[in-house]
Each structure stands twice: as C-alpha cells, then as structure tokens.
C-alpha cells in the first residue's frame, strides 16, 4: 500500500499491487451505496472466499453471470464490492 501525502491529509489513500491501483477518497456525509458497486476481477476466487469467510466476512453468492463466477462482499464501511473470476474451460 502506498499513501500519497496530498491524499493522506484529506483522509484518502491509494492501494497498489502491480498493475492494480485503487484510489479511495473520503466524504464527510458518507452513505454506502447498496446497489452501485465496483467489480474486481480476481484469480483464485474460491480460495479468497474461503479466507474471507474464515475471517468472518459475509460473502454473498449471486446468480451466475455468463463466463464468470462471482460473489459480493461489503467493505468495513458498508460499500458493496463484487469479486469475479472468469470461468476457465478445461
């Protein structure tokens, strides 16, 4: 994780891992979105789901999306996040 000084002074942060970069900001009157959400493409979704559930995170399975396995989680602030992985043919 990389914290940029100009974001830190406003409470924001920048998460970075290789080519993945997520910039988060802060709203004083924040209300989590219950329907709108980002989707993150992941490798190893089943193992990630196991780790999340072991950590006490509520993981919600959803109806299939053609070509993908997917679940939803909420971040600690109540924002909905979709995690999806392409279905690989054998």
From TrEMBL:
SUPFAM superfamilies: Glyoxalase/Bleomycin resistance protein/Dihydroxybiphenyl dioxygenase
Protein name: Putative glyoxylase family protein
Pfam short name (any one): Glyoxalase
Domain of life where this protein originates: Bacteria
InterPro entries referenced in this protein's UniProt entry, alphabetically: Glyas_Bleomycin-R_OHBP_Dase (IPR029068), Glyas_Fos-R_dOase_dom (IPR004360), VOC_core (IPR037523)
Residue span(s) of domain VOC: 1-86
Organism listed in the record: Candidatus Neomicrothrix parvicella RN1
Taxonomic lineage of the native organism: Bacteria, Bacillati, Actinomycetota, Acidimicrobiia, Acidimicrobiales
